[in-house]
Amino acid sequence: MPESPVSRRHFLATSFAAGAAASAASAIPAAPALAHEAATFALPEDFLPVDLAMKTELPPGEIHVDPASFRLYWTLGEGRARRYTVGVGRAGLYHPGTFTMQAKREWPSWTPTAEMIARNPAYARWKDGMPGGINNPLGARALYLFDDNGRDTYLRIHGTNAPQTIATAVSNGCARLINEHIIDLYDRVPLGTRVVLHPKGNAPVLIDETMA
Q1: What is the pLDDT of residues 103-115, one digit of tens each?
Q2: Which residues are catalytic?
Q3: Structural domain of residue 133, as residue ranges?
Q4: I need a surface site. Which of 46, 61, 95, 193 has the fewest CB within 10 A?
Q5: How far apart are CA 100 and CA 162, in angstroms?
Q6: What is the mean pLDDT of each run of 10 residues along the chain (212 residues)?
Q7: Do residues 98 and 195 lie in contact, with contact meaning Cβ atoms separated by under 8 Å?
Q8: pLDDT of amino acid 201
Q9: What's the total number of domains in the chain?
Q10: With contact defined as beta carbons under 8 Å apart, do 197 and 99 qualify?
């Protein structure tokens, strides 16, 4: 049976406590806003997770990201998938490919890469890492993507302390969900999950919403 979408009221309460104001032009804020500076963000109804009928046949237990529509799909089997809304990598920083989720963390720490610091020198203040928590830009949960050789790609599917950046091309390459939604996804996906980041403009038609 399809699961009920996360309620707007539950999200608003969560975002007030854990959201943080951040610039939509920056993947990770150089000086993260504090939780007490957060303002309630009304997530559009269409952004809520929902189970839908699939039009493209895919194996169950996979994650597929369509960057053009800002959608992430967790395939359920029996012709269905659970759809989430995500933010993706900004121009030049989205990296399509097939990966394996080999690690997952609750309230993960964040350490910017050398490339990220080069693009934004203000990140250097966190070169030794930022502890996890409500002000951390990786949010409440993170899924870590590895390549076929077992190497960490530094690509993540993670939460965010900037919920207003969902459904935009804003990140340093990772896919981001609001904290409540990444917690929902995190609890469903096991280690070893196959993850496909489809090319922009070349993703298969995954969902036929008229069949939902």
Answers
A1: 999 999 999 889 9
A2: 158, 174
A3: 8-211
A4: 46
A5: 26
A6: 39 35 33 42 90 89 95 94 95 93 97 90 91 93 97 96 92 94 98 95 64 46
A7: yes
A8: 77
A9: 1
A10: yes
pTM: 0.78
Distance CA 88, CA 68 (A): 9
Residue 146 within any structural domain of the chain: yes
Find the CATH number of the domain harbouring 52.
2.40.440.10
User: CA 198, CA 90: separation in Å to the nearest integer?
Assistant: 15
pLDDT tens digits for range 32-63:
433 433 456 788 999 999 999 988 888 999 99
Facing residues of 156 across strands? 144
**Cβ-contact 195, 100 below 8 angstroms:** yes
Tell me which H or E stretch contains 9: helix 8-18
- In angstroms, the CA 28 to CA 104 distance is 20
The span from the CA of 193 to the CA of 174, in Å, is: 17
pLDDT at res. 186: 98
Q: Is 33:135 a contact under the CB 8 Å cutoff?
A: yes
Tell me, yes or no, whether 1 lies in a domain. no
Q: Are 28 and 160 in contact (CB under 8 A)?
A: no
For residue 176 the two structure tokens come to: 């981001």
**How far is it, in rounded angstroms, from Cα 117 to Cα 210?**
45
